[in-house]
Write a structure and sequence with these properties.
Largest sheet: none
Oligomer: single chain
Structural class: mainly alpha
Shape: elongated
Distance between the termini: 56 Å
Low-confidence stretches: none
Mean pLDDT: 91
Radius of gyration: 19 Å
Helix content: over 70%
Order of helices and strands: HHHHHHHHHH
Length: 170
Protein backbone atom coordinates (compact mmCIF):
# COMPACT_ATOMS: atom_id res chain seq x y z
CA UNK A 1 0.00 0.00 0.00
CA UNK A 2 2.67 2.50 0.99
CA UNK A 3 4.45 2.59 -2.36
CA UNK A 4 1.21 2.65 -4.34
CA UNK A 5 -0.17 5.50 -2.22
CA UNK A 6 3.08 7.41 -2.44
CA UNK A 7 3.30 6.97 -6.22
CA UNK A 8 -0.36 7.93 -6.66
CA UNK A 9 0.34 11.05 -4.62
CA UNK A 10 3.37 11.89 -6.76
CA UNK A 11 1.36 11.36 -9.95
CA UNK A 12 -1.42 13.63 -8.68
CA UNK A 13 1.15 16.22 -7.64
CA UNK A 14 2.71 16.11 -11.12
CA UNK A 15 -0.75 16.80 -12.60
CA UNK A 16 -1.12 19.67 -10.11
CA UNK A 17 -4.10 17.91 -8.57
CA UNK A 18 -3.00 18.87 -5.07
CA UNK A 19 -6.26 17.84 -3.45
CA UNK A 20 -5.86 14.26 -4.66
CA UNK A 21 -2.14 14.32 -3.90
CA UNK A 22 -2.92 15.39 -0.36
CA UNK A 23 -5.33 12.48 0.10
CA UNK A 24 -2.83 9.96 -1.22
CA UNK A 25 0.01 11.30 0.89
CA UNK A 26 -2.24 11.27 3.98
CA UNK A 27 -2.73 7.54 3.40
CA UNK A 28 1.00 7.01 2.83
CA UNK A 29 1.99 8.84 6.00
CA UNK A 30 -0.41 6.68 8.00
CA UNK A 31 1.55 3.64 6.79
CA UNK A 32 4.97 5.21 7.33
CA UNK A 33 4.78 8.22 9.67
CA UNK A 34 8.56 8.60 9.99
CA UNK A 35 9.53 8.60 6.31
CA UNK A 36 11.27 11.91 5.56
CA UNK A 37 10.08 11.96 1.94
CA UNK A 38 6.48 11.24 2.90
CA UNK A 39 6.55 13.81 5.71
CA UNK A 40 7.86 16.53 3.39
CA UNK A 41 5.45 15.78 0.56
CA UNK A 42 2.44 15.40 2.83
CA UNK A 43 3.27 18.65 4.64
CA UNK A 44 3.62 20.57 1.38
CA UNK A 45 0.37 19.20 -0.05
CA UNK A 46 -1.55 19.91 3.17
CA UNK A 47 -0.42 23.54 3.05
CA UNK A 48 -1.15 23.73 -0.67
CA UNK A 49 -4.79 22.71 -0.21
CA UNK A 50 -5.32 24.74 2.96
CA UNK A 51 -5.39 21.90 5.49
CA UNK A 52 -3.47 23.98 8.00
CA UNK A 53 -4.52 21.88 10.97
CA UNK A 54 -2.94 18.83 9.35
CA UNK A 55 0.08 20.84 8.21
CA UNK A 56 0.50 22.14 11.76
CA UNK A 57 0.83 18.59 13.05
CA UNK A 58 3.58 17.90 10.51
CA UNK A 59 5.45 21.22 10.76
CA UNK A 60 7.73 20.21 13.69
CA UNK A 61 8.71 17.01 11.86
CA UNK A 62 9.37 19.01 8.71
CA UNK A 63 11.59 21.43 10.63
CA UNK A 64 13.59 18.51 12.03
CA UNK A 65 14.23 17.43 8.44
CA UNK A 66 14.85 20.96 7.17
CA UNK A 67 15.35 23.58 9.91
CA UNK A 68 15.23 26.34 7.29
CA UNK A 69 11.82 25.39 5.87
CA UNK A 70 10.11 28.78 5.73
CA UNK A 71 6.66 27.33 5.05
CA UNK A 72 6.83 25.20 8.22
CA UNK A 73 8.03 28.22 10.17
CA UNK A 74 5.14 30.32 8.80
CA UNK A 75 2.63 27.62 9.75
CA UNK A 76 4.00 27.53 13.30
CA UNK A 77 4.21 31.33 13.40
CA UNK A 78 0.54 31.70 12.46
CA UNK A 79 -0.43 29.05 15.01
CA UNK A 80 1.42 30.95 17.75
CA UNK A 81 -0.32 34.18 16.70
CA UNK A 82 -3.73 32.49 16.80
CA UNK A 83 -2.90 31.19 20.28
CA UNK A 84 -1.95 34.69 21.45
CA UNK A 85 1.70 33.71 21.91
CA UNK A 86 3.45 36.71 20.35
CA UNK A 87 6.85 35.72 21.79
CA UNK A 88 6.58 32.27 20.23
CA UNK A 89 5.50 33.79 16.92
CA UNK A 90 8.44 36.20 16.98
CA UNK A 91 10.80 33.26 17.43
CA UNK A 92 9.58 31.75 14.16
CA UNK A 93 9.48 35.11 12.34
CA UNK A 94 13.07 35.85 13.32
CA UNK A 95 14.18 32.41 12.12
CA UNK A 96 12.76 32.81 8.62
CA UNK A 97 15.34 32.36 5.88
CA UNK A 98 16.61 35.47 4.16
CA UNK A 99 17.45 33.93 0.81
CA UNK A 100 15.43 33.22 -2.32
CA UNK A 101 11.80 34.27 -2.29
CA UNK A 102 11.88 34.33 1.49
CA UNK A 103 13.93 37.49 1.52
CA UNK A 104 10.73 39.22 0.36
CA UNK A 105 8.40 37.39 2.74
CA UNK A 106 10.47 37.73 5.90
CA UNK A 107 10.05 41.51 6.36
CA UNK A 108 6.26 41.18 6.05
CA UNK A 109 6.06 38.25 8.45
CA UNK A 110 8.31 39.95 10.97
CA UNK A 111 6.44 43.27 10.69
CA UNK A 112 2.99 41.78 11.22
CA UNK A 113 4.23 39.54 14.01
CA UNK A 114 5.81 42.52 15.77
CA UNK A 115 2.62 44.57 15.49
CA UNK A 116 0.67 41.62 16.93
CA UNK A 117 3.13 41.68 19.83
CA UNK A 118 2.43 45.39 20.36
CA UNK A 119 5.75 46.54 18.92
CA UNK A 120 4.66 49.02 16.25
CA UNK A 121 8.11 50.64 16.04
CA UNK A 122 9.67 47.21 15.49
CA UNK A 123 7.06 46.46 12.82
CA UNK A 124 7.88 49.70 11.04
CA UNK A 125 11.60 48.89 11.22
CA UNK A 126 11.00 45.39 9.84
CA UNK A 127 9.30 46.82 6.76
CA UNK A 128 12.30 49.05 6.12
CA UNK A 129 14.02 45.82 5.02
CA UNK A 130 12.04 46.15 1.78
CA UNK A 131 14.07 49.24 0.83
CA UNK A 132 16.83 47.08 -0.61
CA UNK A 133 14.50 45.77 -3.35
CA UNK A 134 13.70 47.77 -6.45
CA UNK A 135 10.00 48.42 -6.96
CA UNK A 136 8.87 47.55 -3.43
CA UNK A 137 8.47 51.13 -2.20
CA UNK A 138 4.72 51.40 -3.03
CA UNK A 139 4.02 48.07 -1.32
CA UNK A 140 6.05 49.08 1.72
CA UNK A 141 4.16 52.37 2.02
CA UNK A 142 0.81 50.62 1.74
CA UNK A 143 1.83 48.03 4.35
CA UNK A 144 2.91 50.81 6.69
CA UNK A 145 -0.53 52.40 6.24
CA UNK A 146 -2.16 49.09 7.10
CA UNK A 147 0.10 48.56 10.14
CA UNK A 148 -0.65 51.99 11.58
CA UNK A 149 -4.35 51.59 10.78
CA UNK A 150 -4.36 48.23 12.56
CA UNK A 151 -2.65 49.84 15.55
CA UNK A 152 -5.39 52.52 15.58
CA UNK A 153 -2.96 55.32 14.81
CA UNK A 154 -5.27 56.73 12.17
CA UNK A 155 -3.46 60.02 11.54
CA UNK A 156 -0.18 58.25 10.77
CA UNK A 157 -2.06 55.65 8.74
CA UNK A 158 -3.79 58.40 6.76
CA UNK A 159 -0.40 59.95 5.92
CA UNK A 160 0.81 56.63 4.51
CA UNK A 161 -2.46 56.01 2.63
CA UNK A 162 -2.18 59.45 1.03
CA UNK A 163 1.46 58.81 0.16
CA UNK A 164 0.49 55.46 -1.37
CA UNK A 165 -2.25 57.06 -3.44
CA UNK A 166 0.00 59.91 -4.53
CA UNK A 167 2.48 57.42 -5.92
CA UNK A 168 -0.16 55.58 -7.94
CA UNK A 169 -1.34 56.43 -11.40
CA UNK A 170 -4.61 54.56 -10.91
Amino acid sequence: HLFGEYLAGRAAQQRRDFSSASKWFEKAITDDPDSPEVISRTFLMEVSVGHFDRALALAPKELKLDPGDAIAQLVLLSDRLKAGDAAGALKYAAALPSDGVHRFIAPFALAWTRVAAGDLAGADTALQGLDKFNGFQPLKIFQLALLYDFAKQTEKAQQYYEKALAGSEQ
